[in-house]
Amino acid sequence: MIYIKNRTEIEKMRAAGRLAANLLLYIEPFIKPGINTLEINDLCHEYTLKHGAKSAPLNYKGYPKAICTSINQVVCHGIPKKEDVVREGDIINVDVTPILDGYHGDTSKTFIVGEIPPDVRQLVEDTEKAMWIGIEQVKPGNRVNDISNAIDDFLTPKGYGIVRDLMGHGIGRNFHEDPQIPHFRQNRTLAKLEPGMIFTIEPMVNMGTYEVSFSRKDKWTVTTRDNKLSAQFEHTVLVTQTGYEVLTLP
């Protein structure tokens, strides 16, 4: 069931979203060669606690850390660890979800570390652009299909693989709510967008196949099946009376 948020809830979602956005701004200067992902996790967790919030991923269905850090061929849900050191030429997605006053703010960004090849930079830029193309489809009367198809129409002709096993999602008091938001073409009729709906748009885009593998070892880490690079960007979006509002901006 899709839960429509009231004014009070929307204000709380705005506050949680701003905190999530500011958390990414805070961590960005630290993301450089030599830092490990556990250090990134700890900095984000300390910032979250300092601002009166808690980290939604921590202990969520057994997830062991406060954020997700996904380097290069890791699509999402990479678990921060001391052994994972950020290096020159890496791309790394940092996904944060603070809970403030009972409500979730969810956002992520793929950071570029130093110099990278032009095709990798293009992947990162196209992934961010695809997210915004999807966001621009958010308005009352449109359907989730419009978001999915607009993203697909932009990315597929460029030869990218759009991950199908993981999608955007409704969000509010719960980390994951209805509706699901696919980022690839949909031929079935999905939910109509109504004012007060809040969900994430978060395309995961691979340089090769859309197929992914789920770690049997840690039960969380998702990697590209062909070991090629992957990028992701994410915002939490509110459907307004006339269009959309991105809640995870500073």
Key descriptive features of the protein:
three-stranded antiparallel β-sheet; alpha+beta; Creatine Amidinohydrolase; single chain; 250 residues; 4 helices
The helix tally amounts to: 4
* Low-confidence region ranges: none
Global mean pLDDT: 99
Radius of gyration: 17 Å
Written as H for each helix and E for each strand, in order along the chain, the element string is HHEEEEEEEHHEEEEEEEEEE
Principal-axis shape equals globular
Estimated helix fraction:
25-40%
Question: Could you state the CATH homologous superfamily?
Answer: Creatinase/methionine aminopeptidase superfamily
Secondary structure class reads: alpha+beta
* Whole-number tally of structural domains: 1
CATH topology: Creatine Amidinohydrolase
What characterizes the major β-sheet?
Answer: 3 strands, antiparallel
Total DSSP E strands: 17
> Main sheet: which strands, in order across?
1-5-6
DSSP strand content: 15-25%
CATH architecture type: Alpha-Beta Complex
User: How far is the first residue's CA from the last residue's CA?
Assistant: 30 Å
CATH class: Alpha Beta
Structure description:
With 250 residues, the chain is α+β, with helices and mostly antiparallel strands. The protein has one domain (7-246): Creatinase/methionine aminopeptidase superfamily (Creatine Amidinohydrolase, Alpha-Beta Complex), CATH 3.90.230. Helices cover 26% and strands 24% of the residues. The protein contains four helices and 17 strands. β16 and β17 form a beta hairpin.
